[in-house]
Specification:
Blueprint lengths: L1 E5 L6 H15 L5 E4 L9 H5 L13 H6 L8 E3 L7 H5 L5 E4 L2 E3 L3 E6 L2 E6 L5 H4 L13 H4 L5 H7 L8 E4 L12 H7 L4 H5 L6 H10 L3 E4 L6 E6 L11 E6 L10 E5 L10 E3 L1 H9 L29 H10 L34 H10 L4 H10 L75 E3 L15 H7 L11 H10 L7 H6 L9 H4 L3
Helix pairs in contact: 11-12
Subcellular location: Nucleus
Family: Belongs to the lariat debranching enzyme family.
InterPro entries: Calcineurin-like_PHP (IPR004843), DBR1_C (IPR007708), Dbr1_N (IPR041816), Metallo-depent_PP-like (IPR029052)
Length: 538
């Protein structure tokens, strides 16, 4: 089956879907599934904008609300993970995943689903070591700290995913696995993004947690976004025994969704022709959720996951075939995910803007149903209970307090002692937030919708690549053209508009290295929603 993979969407749903529809009309290529690697921005209303960790000038309504209200429907099944620029209050309603709109499914903090027999997993957010060992304690209304920590990856999600034993076909993360750049054309990457050099050479670019998952899961494909540059790599995994068959991962990072950028890729994935067209639960993942349910933490206390180190009575939470069979029996062998999307917040109305709308902590009926069905803890319900009981650790307007290690883990060091979000601090294409939060006004938002202020781009096939059946990337970065050869191999074809105007625009949009280092720092928060020529006026 054909799978379309998109990088950072930044709320530009119309752009993505129009590009796919144009691809079908002109080249008779219709993807069966669309995957989005974070920064999806499922913004329903003005309150959601307040929960998105971006400077106020980047808070635009975009077009998701039209899909949420039912005015429009996604033309292809869309599965996405969260990034670091999201309506966190909305996604937090669905910690185990769920529908954010008809035909648009969020994988949750971490999750695994199946589609046509293809096993798809993902982890939302980005890595920050100072929040990695905390529980999911945040809830709206957020403060300057929690609006950011809400999207930071937690060790419990990584621990759950590491309990999986069955093969994963596709995995998504927002930030890149650390060290993956050593398995692709590193020289070409640094030519395009020279400001990554220091982190690449010190091997600190990317997420160590994602790297750990890559080594454990060994998926066939791994897709990421976040750094706003296209990059491919091929990683051959070491085998643990002579009996184990060699495995390799084809890694691809996608660019952001802007005109004339390589933000979308089409790949062919082997699937089960006898499988249905519905999105399905993964039985092993459900069994893992049940097995690890007692590890759920909704406090900001830091703690480590169970390890075989003498401090824990149990450290292996992987599940048996019998446990997986029990899940199948609970579902009567019907793994289809119910289409139980419901509205949980008022939808934006361009004719009646409500700039003072405040976010509220909501318990989503989808999560309630899911937890009741499988006997799981509803994280948001637990947080709400803590609020009602007046627990300081459950408060939403949380004051900074001393971190305390949980019982049994007090003497354990953190898994990772470096603080790295996977994002170069000098990336001019990424929205950067001051860690002190002094320049950000959480009470300000712009609600200019796309219909009234349309984006200045037109759908172009410079935005699409058809991925070859196999990606072969040398770890030897002595040649600048490895990535180009990779895209040409296997009979791949590049679908691209050939007009001189578009080529000129592409050259303008692709000039990442033409400015001095000082200018790059000055402009690092720009170019997410604006066109390149608009950026230069700021």
């Amino acid at each position: 089956m054909k799978v379309a993979v998109a990088g950072c969407c930044h709320g530009a749903l119309d752009k993505m879907y129009e590009t796919l529809e144009l691809l079908e009309r002109r080249h008779n290529v219709r993807p069966d599934l669309l995957l989005c690697c974070g920064d999806f921005q499922a913004v329903r209303n003005e309150a959601d904008l307040r929960c998105m960790a971006v400077p106020a000038k980047y808070r635009h309504m975009q077009t998701f609300y039209r899909y949420y209200s039912g005015e429009k429907k996604a033309p292809v099944l869309t599965v996405f993970i969260g990034g670091n620029h999201e309506a966190s209050n909305h996604l937090q309603e669905l910690p185990y995943g769920g529908w954010v709109a008809p035909n648009i499914y969020y994988l949750g903090y971490a999750g695994v689903v199946r589609f046509r027999g293809v096993r798809i997993g993902g982890i939302s957010g980005i890595f920050k070591s100072h929040d990695y060992r905390k529980g999911h304690f945040e809830c709206p209304p957020y403060n300057q700290q929690t609006i950011r920590s809400a999207y930071h990856v937690r060790n419990i999600e990584v621990f759950k995913l590491k309990q999986l034993k069955r093969p994963i076909d596709i995995f998504m993360s927002h930030d890149w696995p650390r060290s993956i750049y050593h398995y692709g054309n590193k020289k070409q990457l640094l030519k395009m993004k020279s400001f990554f050099r220091q982190e690449v050479e010190s091997n600190t670019l990317g997420s160590p947690a994602a790297s750990e998952l890559l080594q454990h899961l060994k998926p066939t494909y791994w897709f990421s976004a976040h750094l706003h540059v296209k990059f491919a790599a091929f990683m051959q995994h070491e085998t643990n025994s002579k009996e184990e068959l060699p495995k390799a991962t084809k890694f691809l990072a996608l660019d952001k969704c802007l005109p004339h950028r390589d933000f979308l890729q089409i790949i062919d994935v082997e699937h089960d022709p006898n499988a249905g067209d519905s999105l399905e639960y993964d039985a092993e993942w459900i069994a893992v959720l049940k097995a690890t349910n007692n590890l759920v933490n909704v406090t900001q206390s830091s703690w480590n996951m169970p390890e075989k180190n003498g401090l824990h009575a149990k450290w292996d939470y992987s599940v048996t075939e019998e446990a997986i069979k029990e899940v199948l029996e609970e579902l009567n062998h019907d793994l289809k995910i119910p289409c139980n999307f419901t509205l949980t917040a008022a939808c934006y109305d361009p004719s009646k803007p409500q700039k003072n709308m405040e976010p509220v902590h909501t318990i989503n009926p989808q999560t309630t149903e899911f937890c009741a069905q499988f006997g799981l803890t509803d994280i948001n319900d637990r947080i709400q209970q803590a609020k009602e009981e007046g627990s300081g650790r459950g408060e939403c307007e949380l004051e900074e307090e001393e971190e305390m290690d949980s019982t049994g883990s007090a003497e354990e060091p953190s898994e990772y002692n470096t603080d790295n979000s996977g994002l170069s601090s000098f990336n001019p294409d990424e929205i950067m937030l001051d860690e002190e939060g002094g320049d950000e006004d959480l009470s300000t938002c712009s609600v200019d919708p796309s219909p009234d202020h349309p984006p200045e781009f037109s759908t172009s096939f410079s935005d699409i690549r058809i991925m070859p059946d196999s990606m072969v990337v040398s770890s030897d970065d002595a040649t600048d053209s490895n990535n180009e050869e990779l895209e040409r191999s296997g009979g791949s074809k590049q679908v691209e508009e050939k007009s001189s105007i578009e080529r000129s625009l592409k050259r303008i949009g692709g000039d990442e290295n033409g400015n001095s280092g000082v200018k790059k720092i000055k402009r690092r928060n720009q170019a997410i929603y604006a066109a390149e020529d608009e950026d230069k006026t700021d």
